[in-house]
Specification:
Radius of gyration of chain B: 21 Å
Organism (chain B): Nostoc flagelliforme CCNUN1
Mean pLDDT of chain B: 89
Order of helices and strands of chain A: HEHEHEHEEEHEHEHHEEEHEH
Largest interface: A-B, 39 and 38 residues
Helix content of chain A: 40-55%
Shape of chain B: elongated
Number of strands of chain B: 3
Strand order of the largest sheet of chain B: 1-2-3
Number of helices of chain B: 10
Protein name (chain B): SCO6045-like C-terminal domain-containing protein
Largest sheet of chain B: 3 strands, antiparallel
Helix content of chain B: 55-70%
Strand order of the largest sheet of chain A: 3-2-1-12-9-8-7-4
Shape of chain A: globular
Number of strands of chain A: 12
Radius of gyration of chain A: 19 Å
InterPro entries (chain B): SCO6045-like_C
Pfam family, one (chain B): SCO6045_C
Number of domains of chain B: 2
Mean pLDDT of chain A: 93
Order of helices and strands of chain B: HHHHHHHHHHEEE
Structural class of chain B: mainly alpha
Oligomer: heterodimer
Amino acid sequence: MRWWLRWWLWRWLWRRLEAMLSHLPSLGVGLGFREPFKSDLFLNRQQVDFLEIVAEHYLDASWQKQQELELLAAHFPIIPHAINLSLGSAEGLDTDYLRKLAVLIKQLNPPWWSEHICFTKAGGVDIGHLSPLPYTQEAVEVVRRNIAEVRRWVDVPLILENITYMVTLPGAEMTEAQFLAEVVERSDCGLLLDITNLHTNAVNYGYDVHEFLQQLPCDRIVQLHFVGGHWHDGVLIDSHSQSTPVEVWQLMEEVVAHVPVKGIILERDENLPPFAELTKELQKAREISRSNGRWG
Amino acid sequence: MGLAQTQEVLAQLYTNTDFRERFFANPETVGAELGLSCDEAQKLAQLSAKEVNIFANSLKWKRLGEVRELLPRTARALGKNFTALFWRYAQTHVPKGIKKHREDAIAFANFIAIPEEENLDPPWISDLVRYEKTWLLAYEPTSRLIVCWFRYPVGIASAKEMKRQPTIAIWFRFSKQSQLRHIVRSL
């Protein structure tokens, strides 16, 4: 392809993405939905602007789970958050999973949906967790190719999340931040910045979060995740089991001050506290957003 | 070595203890078995064995947590034995699919419900695990009717006071969309 045609095409794609991301609605501050706090959620629904559901919980769902989803959708905007599509799998995607996911997303008709920058399956093995990709051009190309396939099934904007990892893979051709930037830019996606994951990796691998943030395409950040983890044998574990630590609040302040994020989600899974503690954290996130003029 | 092959090896390293130990003890030989060149095996051997072990263990602990939630009474009754049995089981089985935690719990229940061979204590444990496994099977919307016999009143009595007494348990639903119903009677 001629250089000027490539340049024109790139500019056109860039403008299209800018327009797409800037037109996404602001959803506010919400919760990752977990069944144990369903009744508390409805008792406190004024304090939760929107919900994120784990898509996998509603694929091949029982009638009762379908009813639960319909009830949630009747009261809250819902963002589907997928965990096992394995966008980084070089062997391609599981089309059965993708087909079911596409049906769910169509049913909910959300403003966007999200997945992770990782792989979870290879060679017939379901690893059972989000596993890091090598920071190589080949991996960037694999994710881009898989996302192009996803778009044949789902036309709702996709935003991609950064993960935590316990293993560093050899053969990196770029830094993690450069890799994330390459992936979202080449695949034309928004970014779901998990600030707890960022903090966790920075602590475990000793890098500077501020430098990391400078390398990210911040204009692509659509949504944030936050929560607290725990320490085990000198390693900070992303267990979604503790209240949000001060470093993560500071990071939220820094990001929200510079980026017009559309939504912030508290993702608590383990060691669930009384619901009032969760709403207190939501309120704090809301105050940070308001003080930076993000939403009313 | 392409990404697809690297990911296949990584998936094995993360989930297969025996493979992991063999690989880090002798990466070039195990790499050759997988069709890797010497250079490729050496490159993969740059992985930190300590990091891979920590990750692999965290995966098994995560699975254990999910299975414990799905077989709560069995977990309470077996105590530490539940964890020990799960580590043995997890060596040979990696679940997959959308409902992998449920599939994992059912496969683990099958693994431990062999009382004569395992000499499990207390003796009613195999009935209890079979009872909890049947609940998991019955939750499947396509499941309309399941009838099971037990030697102990597992659906009625608490684990501490279980005495031998033939018991029948029935799970049923009138249609795919109706509530799952459950009846237990001791004879």
